[in-house]
Amino acid sequence: MPLTFAQAVTERTLSRRTRLCVGLDPRLDAYRDADHLKEHTLDVLEATAPYAACVKPQLAFYEALGLSGMHLLEDLCAAARTLGLPVILDGKRGDIGSTAAAYAQGWLAGRHAGAALTVNPFLGFGTLTPFVDTARQHGGGVFVLVKTSNPDQADLQGGGLSERVAAEVARLGAQEPLGEGEYASVGAVVGATHPGDLAAFRALMPRALLLLPGLGAQGAQAADLAGAFHPGGTGALASASRGVQYAGGLDVQASVQAARAYRDELNAALGV
Ligand SMILES: O=c1ccn([C@@H]2O[C@H](COP(=O)(O)O)[C@@H](O)[C@H]2O)c(=O)[nH]1
């Protein structure tokens, strides 16, 4: 049996000693042309893989490139599979149930079986069902937006809404029979930019993998993220995109150094 997404992340976290999620968000204006973008993005993936627990392409950047972006995304996912890197497709999908089912089919089944997808619960908890069911059927995962990293999240996510979503993530996770140290297929996005809240969300969602975006370019620091992890340094993934891909302009060795430094800072913060 192949490992599920959550098992693969935990296995890689422990065997490679890394909790870093490398984000790959290629921006056309940074490159000479689309071929240059493709070459650099795949080079960064391969070069930083030894320091990565997983990789997270933001679908918006691939969609912005049209058909060539979709081809690049497929090449990137195939390369990640070859490198043994679990993939998180950051698409923040969500819609009425029948449309959600189509999104789930497209991003969590077929050639994306075993990947994870970020999902938006704003249309109601029932609309998460097709994503959760498809992820479970195909050994994948979902990361539900609980408290996003941007400052204006508080406009809508304050007033206890994030905690209500967290309770639903915990309820879904409790449906899954898990062994000691295992995580559910239903995880949560909690911004690394909210370090003071991480321990509380960790406690609210004990079986959920937490995806923590915001490391680097958005100002979050590895040293502040320990509250999101379980003892031994499992259960969360800290994500940096621009801070790795464009760490030194387009110098791939600078990306490698940045990924290694984030990995080391996270491990030091956790004492692992
Ligand atoms: O709450 C969230 C959820 C997702 N993101 C995504 O993560 C990366 C962050 O990029 P950086 O360059 O590391 O700032 C990007 O793809 C966002 O769409 C997030 O930032 N916050």
TrEMBL record:
Residues 19-259 form the Orotidine 5'-phosphate decarboxylase domain. PROSITE patterns: OMPDECASE. The active site is at 92 (proton donor). Pathway: Pyrimidine metabolism; UMP biosynthesis via de novo pathway; UMP from orotate: step 2/2. Its EC number is 4.1.1.23. It comes from the Bacteria. GO terms for molecular function: orotidine-5'-phosphate decarboxylase activity. InterPro entries: Aldolase_TIM, OMPdecase_AS, OMPdecase_type-2, OMPdeCOase_dom, RibuloseP-bd_barrel. It holds the Pfam family OMPdecase. It catalyses: orotidine 5'-phosphate + H(+) = UMP + CO2. It is an enzyme of class 4 (lyase). Keywords: Decarboxylase, Lyase, Pyrimidine biosynthesis. Belongs to the OMP decarboxylase family. Type 2 subfamily. This is Orotidine 5'-phosphate decarboxylase. It comes from Deinococcus taklimakanensis. The lineage of its organism: Bacteria, Thermotogati, Deinococcota, Deinococci, Deinococcales. The gene is pyrF.
